[in-house]
Amino acid sequence: MAETVTFLVDPLPVDASTEFLEASFREIEPGSGALAVNDFAPHRGDGVFETLAVVDGHVQEVEPHLARLANSARLTELPEPNLEQWRLVIRRAAERVPAEGEFALKIALSRGVDPGNTPTGWVHVTPGADFAASRERGIRVVTLDRGVARGAGERSPWLLLGAKTLSYASNMAAIREAKRRGADDAVFVSADGYVLEGPTSSVLARIGDVIVTPPPAAGILHGTTQRSVFAYLEGQGRAVEYRDLTVDDLRGADAAWLMSSVRMAAPIAELDGTSMPVDHEATAELNAYLLSPRD
Amino acid sequence: MAETVTFLVDPLPVDASTEFLEASFREIEPGSGALAVNDFAPHRGDGVFETLAVVDGHVQEVEPHLARLANSARLTELPEPNLEQWRLVIRRAAERVPAEGEFALKIALSRGVDPGNTPTGWVHVTPGADFAASRERGIRVVTLDRGVARGAGERSPWLLLGAKTLSYASNMAAIREAKRRGADDAVFVSADGYVLEGPTSSVLARIGDVIVTPPPAAGILHGTTQRSVFAYLEGQGRAVEYRDLTVDDLRGADAAWLMSSVRMAAPIAELDGTSMPVDHEATAELNAYLLSPRD
């Protein structure tokens, strides 16, 4: 058992024989030198990733994350990932951490070492932070203009707005800006005033009896946690909807959350310095669902 | 002597004693595992870089590149780089490659290993490609919408448009899109129709007797090669100007180039499938200047 676990992965082609799977990855000392400086991941932020929650030994929503990894690979013209390999690698990595508690399991696929095109991969598992306050009391959020109009991702696919790439410098800068303003997190807004997504989360709002989220066509990543919550709510007979949201719509919502795989449902308690209603009951229900074993 | 050289660098604080400089970096086998997978460079594309040309043993424009590295570090809130250290590291790396020929020398500064904030750094030198055809016959270029309006970088500094970060996935996707369209390279255009920059270059145009380039306030990186060429031309008594350029302005120019540190002046011979005039005399003069030793 270890609190932090790192595997280096040699990504296999989709048609590789299953006999190669177990030998296609190896555990290394966390923090040790592993990637070449001219691997396209550090060289160009040119790779894709997913972060999965591990809760009491169960890896949440492996298939939706792998489906999105494959979609990100397609959008960035990386070789199609061998999902059977990634399923095994994820399982083996999760087995190496304690069977109790929360962990964040990141999988990444890079274009490989420049100038070749043999992808490299890795898994890195770390203990989850203590999200109790974020999940219960909520978070303070600021809106930040992303500069692009709604729908820019469809007109300009080279912006990779729908792919989860390793190029997150601007996402990290947005979180620093939020903290500078005394907040905890940010929500990106389009140049034409529509709510997009958080730097590492999806935005959900309850407006009356309907739970709404901006459509992926707005130029955002389709959230795995948002989708999981939508499926759960639909199963409960509740109304969910993809709908364009202005900042005023969000400000006037009956409740709102940032949703992400590891922090899960964090209610927005303050938006741009103004208090927002926190629906404690719905939040507790959502996090109970999100923390339960999900496949 | 080696054709490819890699140094790992422990970035020193600006007030470090000079006695530590020589011991602050070490050569490693190129392509060997060096960076932790949770170093912020592969983890988040969260770091900054510069690429310098080495021409017959001379590193071009070290000080302008270091000034821009320091500016990128400031914009991304990385610790201020110790420029004395980087000068030494650059010199030592350049000494390891043959004294004839062209090389590309990349320096990079990452935020370090998550969750710490001790930066990591590296230098990687590779042989320059054969740019003869690009510099003489020219390149085919397509315009690609970047989705942001001109000036978005000033309104949204968290987009880091003026910083040279390691998050280049979208720049690489733009070059792939250009190749898919049968071209060699791309020029990003703002959502409101203004010429911005290439994915790895600046745009210059000759309009009558004036050499023009878009102003950095448009939301672009201030090009070191563009600045060097402007200084050279001004020294020759030629008119240069920062000026907003529409795509029509570029299409109607008397000549145009993409300028970058290693490929240098590449005339645009074709823009979106339409031929453009190539000023062979001016191009030869610019590349003769750019290939001469510059500090």
UniProtKB/TrEMBL annotation, chains A, B:
One of its GO terms (molecular function) is lyase activity. Keywords: Lyase. It comes from the Bacteria. SUPFAM superfamilies: D-aminoacid aminotransferase-like PLP-dependent enzymes. Belongs to the class-IV pyridoxal-phosphate-dependent aminotransferase family. This is Aminodeoxychorismate lyase. It comes from Agromyces tropicus.
